[in-house]
Amino acid sequence: xxxxxxxxxxxxxxxxxxxxxxxxxxxxxxxxxxxxxxxxxxxxxxxxxxxxxxxxxxxxxxxxxxxxxxxxxxxxxxxxxxxxxxxxxxxxxxxxxxxxxxxxxxxxxxxxxxxxxxxxxxxxxxxxxxxxxxxxxxxxxxxxxxxxxxxxxxxxxxxxxxxxxxxxxxxxxxxxxxxxxxxxxxxxxxxxxxxxxxxxxxxxxxxxxxxxxxxxxxxxxxxxxxxxxxxxxxxxxxxxxxxxxxxxxxxxxxxxxxxxxxxxxxxxxxxxxxxxxxx
Length: 279
Ligand code: ATP
Ligand code: ATP
Ligand code: MG
Ligand code: MG
Ligand code: MG
Ligand code: MG
Ligand code: MG
Prior knowledge:
Mean pLDDT: 92
Helix content: 40-55%
Bound molecules: adenosine-5'-triphosphate, magnesium ion
Structural class: alpha+beta
Number of helices: 10
Order of helices and strands: EHHEEHEHHHHEHHEH
Radius of gyration: 22 Å
Strand content: 5-15%
Largest sheet: 6 strands, antiparallel
């Protein structure tokens, strides 16, 4: 690298390395998607194609970044989780966030026409995403983070489903529906849906009620292996692995299939059935 009298400006760059040995969550969120979804006429309250496109872009991010353990998406947001022993970009905040955001956005735009063939993207309505990194010091808090997002999905979806049913099927104005829903609890909304519209909320699609979880599928998912191969073992005790072993794990991860699922991630069952995700 050439020395020059200008080089001192490099020293103005601030370090932004994230705390070691913590879970890193990068959450991205669509910018102005309320407007964007209107412009491209997303179905209300849930446009299935828009969700499938989000999930397809997120799968590509998982494939490109084997350090990611799990991701969870709802609406126009996705949370990507790096393991505490992740050393990608020396754990630099800016590098991790911008790489996720730009990789995701690139795939989202690249795949758009596959999901919305009749609605080509046109400026100024181009999708963009913001992103942030948050670190969590232990598994319990990471799981509470994931639960927080899924509870949010549930609360918003119940509200949106009730609201849009009142408007689209009940012929109510947006303001009247909003007014009536003010101060209601979940049971009230379930009752409005069922008594007035004959809709049992439980029968709504899982992708709408639960959001989307992405994780890597390894051979060891049930039935539990009786004998564990060296590879499988290395996945489990990964936290104490050497560099070369970590490279091996990264290769395994790259080969593993990314699963797209719409299931409860709040209860223990999901995690107990897939112990490698947090190990
Ligand atoms: P990274 O890719 O990890 O973010 P970077 O962006 O700092 O690193 P590069 O993108 O590889 O580095 O290059 C940017 C340019 O900045 C280099 O070509 C070099 O001229 C200059 N540069 C990078 N690091 C230093 C340094 N430590 N001291 C002086 N100049 C540097
Ligand atoms: P900001 O830039 O602050 O994030 P925003 O307009 O994107 O603003 P959000 O709170 O992120 O606001 O909400 C995203 C909005 O995008 C939703 O409220 C909804 O209107 C719309 N949206 C996102 N995904 C879908 C979908 N699959 N189907 C229908 N509408 C969607
Ligand atoms: Mg936002
Ligand atoms: Mg948004
Ligand atoms: Mg959002
Ligand atoms: Mg660079
Ligand atoms: Mg460069």
